Amino acid sequence: MENVKLEIDGKAVEAAPGTTVLQAAKSLGIKIPTLCHDDRLEEYGGCRMCMVEIETKWGRKRLVASCVYPVEEGLKVQTSTEKVMRIRRMIIELLWPAWQLYAEEYGVKSSRFKTGMTDCSLCGLCLRYCSEIKKANVIYFRGRGVERKPALIEGAEMQCRACGECFTLCGSGWIASRC
Predict the structure, then answer these.
(1) Secondary structure class of 151 (helix, strand, coil)
(2) Is the pTM higher than 0.90?
(3) Which of 78, 105, 139, 170 lies at a CB distance of 3.0 to 4.6 Å from 53, suitable for a disulfide?
């Protein structure tokens, strides 16, 4: 199959079909921030920190999560429009203080939102790693909406502590503090 030709921040790039916009941007040295992405894991698109603005060859514009959006012929991608920056600032505020990794870069000093659970960003890295890489499936999300929280299956604390491989993925330290 032929490579797909697209443009990211005004730079032309060719990528294999099935490549994500995030992967194509990385190949150009263009940094798109992520919270829930890890190259070892399946694409997830849960945090939306990697949002970019795209314009298709037919002129349709919209926002997409670059870690799950596949490249398309003639696609034009903008990684730092004002709309994109506003969304990233909002995400940082919503996840405050669990993810302050990008706060300074995006000029966020605090959150205007009252967050119920401040020690987990709900990025899913720990449970996806546990499921996809370790095949242990001892971490899961319990609840829905604002009640959604990570949890360990009953009796899994010792198994988690013995493994510990996902601890370094957790930007907020939730999993390490539970095992």
Answers:
(1) strand
(2) no
(3) 78
Same domain, 85 and 135: no
**94, 93, 29, 37: which is closest to 65 by C-alpha?**
37
13 and 83 share a domain? yes
> Containing domain of residue 137, as a range?
125-178
Name which of 29, 4, 36, 63 is nearest 121 in CA terms. 36
Q: How many domains does the chain have?
A: 2
Residue 106: Cβ within 10 Å count: 16
Residue 113 resides in a domain: no
CA pair distance 5, 77, nearest whole angstrom: 12
pLDDT tens digits, residue range 99-134?
677 888 888 888 787 655 556 778 899 999 999 999
Tokens representing residue 48 in the block:
């939306």
Window from 4-8, 41-45, 99-103, 129-133 with minimum mean pLDDT: 99-103
**Amino acid in the structure at residue 45:** G
Q: Are residues 53 and 130 in the same domain?
A: no
Residue 53 lies in a domain: yes
Whole-number Å distance between alpha carbons of 161 and 158: 5
Q: How far is CA 151 from CA 56, 75, 89, 99, 156, in A?
A: 40, 40, 28, 19, 10
10 and 89 assigned to the same domain? yes
Cis peptide bond prior to 33, omega within 30° of 0? no
